TrEMBL record:
Keywords: Cell inner membrane, Cell membrane, Cell projection, Chemotaxis, Cilium, Flagellar rotation, Flagellum, Membrane, Transmembrane, Transmembrane helix. Controls the rotational direction of flagella during chemotaxis. Belongs to the FliL family. It is a single-pass membrane protein. Its main location: membrane. The keyword Methyltransferase does not apply. It comes from Muricoccus vinaceus. It comes from the Bacteria. It is found in: Cell inner membrane; Cell membrane. This is Flagellar protein FliL.
Amino acid sequence: MSGGAQGKAAQTEAGTKKRGKLPLIAAVLVLLLAGGGAGAWYAGLLPGFGGNHDTHEAADAVAKAAAKPPVFIEIPDIIANLNSTARRQTFIKVRARLEVADEAQGKIVQAAMPRLLDLFGGYLRETRPEELRGSAGTQRLREEIVTRANLAVAPARISDVLFVELVMQ
């Protein structure tokens, strides 16, 4: 074989290798674009596809709800002894406010205040001092109070508890 024939054979072989990779690269690109498009649709970033009308209505409802400020209900001071195995008793003093959506729910919460005070006091008497230490303990206390309060004021809904004073002695 001559040098020219070997060069053409080498070029043909190299061209075949490049053409063999081209469909693979194209397929990977198509899959990446399809995956990105599906993710954007699922996340709701493509407004024209999939009928996102529900999310727009929900966003409008949230905007209307945010327009009126929440109502804060003052809880009288709660002083309770904690569940302690030490010789000396540990006491806690809690002063807090409950956050509700509107005045109507605020009236329901005010009417249920004796029940709320009983629930909170009972929960605090069963709590150990080490459970309330640190920010994680305060967060747990907040979650428990919200959960118990929502059970006590069933038609109304308490969205948060704001601690004004939390003293352990």
